[in-house]
Design a protein that fits this description.
The chain is α+β, with helices and mostly antiparallel strands. It contains 21 helices and 23 strands. Strands 6, 7, 8, 9 and 14 form a five-stranded mixed β-sheet that branches. A hairpin with a 5-residue loop joins strand 12 and strand 13. The longest helix is centred in the first third of the chain and has 50 residues.
């Protein structure tokens, strides 16, 4: 048997160990190389993903194409990719785009890396929340790029699909009167436009000029509309909307070659000028309004209330537009609904107004400059608010023409002016208030009888050539007779007798200097500089509604309501669903001011105002067919007692005195009655209104 050499076994061990070490080193090197390479590729692909996220969230759509793989760029150009993002994201009004990375993993072989993420987008159709998978691979330059397709915009979107955004219109709330008659609603207008292919080539310029003149727009504006990119020969190109009832204009424009008139949605006011100052009107939002209202959901196509209740209740009437975002197949069919937000219709406004009574009073005012207010004397419900002259609110909806606007705004009779929200010199219509104040403070004795002062009077010679005058004498003077025959001298004397502070205290109790809580903003009744002045003549004149006295008609109606409600003044109200409109509800019969007069004083004046109708200055109202109490008033508007160029306001306030269920008060004021028999011009109008209204409701 041979013996193995002692060193050979040792060598084998060394070699074995070396082989193992080499294998381990190689394995480690390979592993390290793979690890480092993987780390490098992950960082590179993460950078591409991050760049894409940054471009989308910041709207840098023009930079996305540089991230797209060359194989994809061979099939789609930069303009297409950029336009796809721009049109879709702008079209859906995308906001607050956020990305959340869910997973990143390396693909097999040469598949590159896959990034799975979530993208949320706020749109008018709600928040769109989708999960995406992005593949990022090396290109021929060994750079990582995105294997782009349209499904990176939306997972459901193929390259041949399109995205459409539809606005779902909200119905604007309707304004109703107390009987359910519609005062303002969504109706139809007329859109005047041109169909280019039907226009005459030989008379094209002349036809455009004729249409421009009729619609009061420029020729350049019409040509600009016709040259828009979307216009083809057979499409209707709208030029201007007009009122649907403007038949004269419609008949003229349709004679022009190529003109068509289509129906379009528009706000409609069935009672037109009768209630224009109450309803107001809507119009396209102005640039100035949009600056302050854009954050409330308005855009350049919005319609907003411009005056009256349309403006006051705009936020409730307007509703909220809905929206749907659709993916359409190449044939235009709906593939999928991405987002949907239903439209929310505006809230309706229900009024206490009786449109029938408004029409009666509007017709009685006729061509006069004036106003009329009607109120229920037990509930405070306002039944009528009319101001004349007026205007047609339907003209404004369509976009009033320059000539019509010029005619309205330059009219010296001020048809756009709402007279019943303003303040006026009340004249003798204020005497019942002075009477009640004097009765309460004890300076007027209803049983006192005094001799007549004739037709003119002054306290003493310190007044110089200033006299208080009255229109007729009637024998012995009492409060009842002074009211019946509207004796200025009596009320001047009684106001001086009670004194400045007592009179002002009485005015304060009935709400002078305060804003009357009401749906519409009203002028505040005031007594001018009476408190600061020591002028006795001003105090005397104030007692019969002259001097610097100014009264809002609705406030005056509330003051008169105290005579039928034991000295308590009703709170006039206009809206019956106030709570739904974010306002405090008014319970019928709510008092604005309590105990402004004692019940006894109120009853005395109430009975005395019967005499005004039965034998005094209001006897023309005996024809009304109902038992009335009331007061006439002729307010002089002049610079001085010697002013011969002044004018006068004619007042008549009358209310049903024997009707215990729903007695109504009608107040009317007409301007410029100096040469038309003063308040006697107004009395028959109010009497006829009572006759027609009560005769029509029996």
């Amino acid at each position: 048997m041979s013996k193995r050499k002692k060193g050979g076994n040792h060598l084998g061990v060394v070699i074995g160990i070396t082989v193992v070490l080499v294998a381990v080193f190689v394995a480690f090197a390979v592993y390290a190389w793979i690890y480092l390479f993987r780390e490098d590729s992950q960082a590179a692909t993460q950078a591409v993903y991050d760049a894409y996220v940054d471009d989308v969230t910041n709207g840098n759509y023009g930079q996305i194409y540089s991230l797209v793989h060359e194989d994809i760029q061979a099939t789609v150009d930069e303009e297409t990719v950029t336009a796809r993002y721009t049109n879709i994201f702008n079209g859906i009004s995308a906001e607050n785009i956020t990305f959340t990375l869910l997973e990143s993993r390396e693909g097999e072989d040469d598949e590159g890396w896959y990034y799975r993420y979530q993208m949320t987008v706020d749109t008018p159709a709600g928040t769109l929340d989708n999960t995406y998978t992005m593949q990022i691979c090396r290109d021929s330059q060994r750079e990582y790029k995105i294997m782009w397709s349209s499904n990176l915009i939306f997972p459901q979107l193929d390259d041949t699909d399109t995205v459409r955004v539809n606005t779902l219109e909200a119905k604007r709330g309707t304004i109703y009167d107390v009987n359910g008659n519609i005062l303002a609603c969504d109706g139809e207008g007329a859109s005047v436009g041109l169909v280019p292919g039907k226009m005459s080539e030989t008379t094209r310029d002349e036809d455009i000029a004729a249409l421009a003149e009729l619609l009061e727009v420029s020729v350049d504006y019409i040509n600009e509309q016709l040259s828009a990119q979307w216009v083809t020969d057979d499409v209707f190109v709208p030029i201007r909307s007009i009122a649907a009832d403007n038949q004269d204009l419609i008949d003229q424009v349709i004679q022009i070659s190529g003109v068509m008139v289509n129906s379009t949605s528009a706000r409609e006011y069935p009672y037109g000028a009768t209630l224009a100052h109450l309803t107001g009107y809507v119009q396209a939002i102005s640039a100035e309004e949009l600056e302050t209202m854009a954050d409330q959901g308005y855009d350049s196509n919005s319609i907003v209330g411009k005056s009256g209740l349309e403006q006051i209740y705009e936020s409730y009437l307007r509703g909220t537009e809905g929206c749907e975002i659709l993916i359409l197949n190449s044939d235009g069919s709906v593939k999928e609904t991405l987002g949907y937000q239903a439209a929310v219709d505006g809230q309706d406004v229900h009024l206490t107004i009786d449109a029938n009574l408004c029409q009666i009073l509007y017709e009685q005012l006729g061509d006069d400059n004036g106003l009329a207010v009607a109120m229920n004397m037990k509930t405070g419900a306002i039944l009528s608010l009319v101001s004349t002259p007026s205007y047609n609110p339907n003209e404004f909806v369509a976009g009033i023409t320059n000539s019509s606007w010029e005619a309205l705004s330059s009219d010296e009779d001020l048809p756009l002016y709402n007279r019943y929200t303003s303040t006026w010199v009340p004249g003798s219509s204020f005497k019942p208030i002075t009477a009640a104040i004097g009765l309460d403070n004890g300076t007027i004795d209803p049983d006192e009888v005094s001799p007549s002062n004739g037709l003119s009077w002054q306290k003493d010679s310190s007044w110089g050539d200033l006299f208080v005058t009255t229109l007729e004498t009637y024998g012995d003077v009492t409060l009842q007779k002074a009211l019946a025959y509207s004796d200025n001298i009596y009320f001047a004397q009684q106001t001086l007798n009670m004194g400045r502070q007592a009179f002002i205290d009485g005015l304060t109790k009935v709400g002078f200097g305060e804003s009357l809580p009401f749906a519409m903003s009203l002028g505040t009744s005031s007594y001018g500089s009476l408190e600061e002045s020591s002028d006795e003549v001003m105090l005397a004149n104030s007692g019969y509604g002259q001097g610097e006295m100014l009264v809002n008609p609705i406030h005056l109606a509330s003051m008169y309501s105290a005579f039928m409600n034991d000295g308590n003044m009703l709170l006039p109200y206009l809206v019956t669903n106030s709570e739904e409109l974010g306002q405090e509800a008014v319970t019928p019969g709510t008092y604005w001011k309590t105990n402004v007069f004692s019940a006894q004083s109120a009853q005395i004046v109430n009975e005395d105002l019967r005499t005004v109708i039965s034998e005094g200055t209001g006897t023309q109202a005996l024809s009304a067919g109902v038992t009335l109490a009331g007061k006439t008033g002729t307010a002089e508007i002049k610079d001085s007692q010697d002013d011969t160029n002044g004018t006068a306001l004619g007042w008549f306030v009358a209310y049903e005195i024997d009707n215990t269920d729903d007695p109504i008060l009608i107040l009317m004021m007409v301007e410029d009655v100096l040469d038309r028999d003063g308040s006697h011009y107004v009395v028959p109008k109010v009497a006829e209104a009572f006759t027609q209204y009560r005769g029509g409701t029996d």
